[in-house]
Amino acid sequence: MPATPLYIICSPRPQVGKTLLARLLTEFLLLKNGDVAAFDVNLKEPSLLDFLPKVTETADVIDTFGKMQLMDRVILDDGLAKVIDLGFHAFDEFFKMTEEIGLLKEAARRHVAPMILFMADTDRASARAHEMLRDRIPRMNLITVDNEHIVRGELPAAMATGRVFRLPALPGFLKTYIDRLNFSFTGYLRQEKDSSTELHQWIRRNYLAFRELELSLILQRS
Questions:
Q1: Which of 53, 120, 169, 212 is the most buried (most CB within 10 A)?
Q2: Can you tell me whether residue 146 is helix, strand or coil?
Q3: Rounded distance, CA 172 to CA 177, Å?
């Protein structure tokens, strides 16, 4: 990779599939690279730490010490991809902090490539948050996630104009299945011999989409 990737998965709203996406992305990076560093900034369970405790550590942005600890870990060009599962309670404080420290400029100086994956929703809070990010984040660094389980139908027009990552919905019984704390997406791919199952294809589709996201980062930096 031409720069160390930093994925920040966020929303000002709870229960929009943020931790599900963080799990998928973290497992993909672990499969592809052999290692990944994930950071869980959440108050409620289940959270990323519960699903992937071996590669995840907790973090907070409540005080200056916590903010600096997190930034020191993630703005580091060590070739190790980072994933932040940013809880809705910390959304405003986190992006206020990134504005104050000039995260994007500092990341560029340190050869780190941040990608903000914003979980779309149709409520006012999401609309305002997305508008704020569009004003602060370059178009190539901001990806709107269309979780079909949450946004039933077309994305709001303002969110559909930039880069979009589509997360297909799963039937309810499969959603319950993957929500078990001991479930592994990569483990399922390895153990399930029938590649035609709906869940197998869903995982592969998302892994391939993550690969496309990585390729776009390479092209962006080349």
A1: 120
A2: strand
A3: 9
Give percent helix, percent strand, percent coil of the chain, each to the nearest 5: 50, 20, 35
Q: What is the pLDDT of residue 61?
A: 87
d(CA 26, CA 84): 10
User: What integer pLDDT is reported at residue 45 of this predicted model?
Assistant: 66
pLDDT at 1: 58
Provide the 3-class DSSP secondary structure of residue 48: helix
Q: Across all residues in the chain, what is the average pLDDT?
A: 92
H or E element, residue 142: strand 142-147
Predicted local distance difference test score (pLDDT) of residue 219 = 65
Q: Give, for 50, the enclosing helix (H) or strand (E).
A: helix 48-51
CA-closest candidate to residue 118, choices 144, 83, 88 = 144
CB pairs under 8 A, 24+ apart, for 59-63? 59/84, 60/90, 61/90, 61/93, 61/94, 61/97, 62/90, 62/93
Q: How far is CA 53 from CA 40, 150, 177, in A?
A: 10, 27, 19
How far apart CA 126 and CA 118 sit, in angstroms, is 9
In the chain, how long is the greatest CA-to-CA distance?
A: 50
* Residues 6 or more apart whose Cβ sits within 8 Å of residue 65: none
Indicate if the pLDDT at residue 23 is higher than 90.
yes
List of long-range contacts for 70-74, beta carbons under 8 Å, 24+ apart:
70/39, 70/41, 71/97, 71/101, 71/103, 73/37, 73/39, 74/6, 74/37, 74/39, 74/112
Query: In a 3-state reduction of DSSP, which class is residue 161?
Result: coil
